[in-house]
């Protein structure tokens, strides 16, 4: 009888295991979800998109400067291709090109002394605010006249600038070098 009880017990155990386990395959252990860590490398700032423009720049006529002979034009034009971007507007790039000087150095020169530092140029409502550091503004009346005229005529060629307000150290000033008044904006007069 012991054999019979063991057999029944084994049969009940087998049926119980079959009922509980069924025909399911054992489940694979689940892997924890992969969490991407933020990149440790800083994102590179986007490079400003470079743009180019062909512009007319006004420079001093070397023949006039050397001789003072009024039969010569006192300023001549030179066409240059200017590179600018979202950080430096076209108007600022033009003033920087005037400071750098002409490509034709044999016939043309700039009135800007090497000591001049441009802080920046901003344009609002047709007025270009051209801002220089005061420390480098040294020179005579002819240099000051060229700086003003080169800037006004060159920016005036754009058509979008109707007047230029010169600033020294981010403030309105009486003059750039002590000879010509710049207290009011200078109107562009294109012939």
What's the Cα radius of gyration? 39 Å
Approximately what portion of the residues adopt beta-strand conformation? 15-25%
Q: pLDDT below 50 for ≥5 consecutive residues: which ranges?
A: none
Mean pLDDT: 85
Number of spatially distinct domains: 1
DSSP, total strands? 8
Structural class: alpha+beta
The proportion of residues forming helix, as a percent range, comes to 25-40%
> Whole-Å distance between the termini?
129 Å
H-E string? HEHEHEEEHEEE
Figure out the total of helices. Answer: 4
Shape: elongated
Largest sheet: 5 strands, mixed
Explain what this protein looks like in three dimensions:
The strands form two sheets. Strands 4, 5, 6, 7 and 8 form a five-stranded mixed sheet that branches. The model has no long low-confidence stretch (mean pLDDT 85). α3 (90-100) packs antiparallel against α4 (141-156). This protein is an alpha+beta fold and 191 residues long. The protein is elongated and about 100 Å long. β5 (127-132), α4 and β6 (163-168) form a beta-alpha-beta unit. The N and C termini lie far apart (129 Å). It has helices at residues 2-21, 62-67, 90-100, 141-156; strands at residues 51-61, 75-84, 108-109, 118-124, 127-132, 163-168, 171-172, 186-187.
């Amino acid at each position: 009888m012991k054999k019979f009880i063991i057999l029944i017990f084994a049969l009940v155990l087998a049926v119980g295991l079959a009922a509980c386990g069924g025909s399911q395959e054992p489940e694979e252990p689940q892997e924890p979800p992969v969490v991407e860590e933020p990149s440790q490398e800083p994102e590179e700032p986007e490079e400003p998109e470079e743009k180019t423009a062909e512009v007319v720049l006004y420079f001093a006529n070397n023949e006039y400067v050397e001789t003072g002979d009024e039969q010569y034009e006192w300023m001549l034009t030179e066409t240059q291709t200017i590179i600018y971007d979202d950080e430096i507007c076209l108007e600022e790039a033009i003033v920087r090109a005037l400071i750098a000087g002409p490509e034709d150095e044999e016939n043309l020169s700039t009135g800007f002394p090497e000591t001049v530092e441009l802080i920046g140029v901003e344009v609002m409502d047709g007025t270009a605010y051209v801002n220089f550091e005061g420390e480098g503004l040294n020179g005579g009346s002819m240099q000051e006249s060229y700086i003003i005229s080169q800037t006004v005529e060159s920016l005036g060629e754009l058509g979008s600038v109707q007047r230029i307000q010169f600033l020294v150290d981010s403030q309105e000033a009486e003059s750039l070098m002590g000879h010509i008044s710049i207290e009011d904006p200078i109107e562009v007069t294109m012939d």
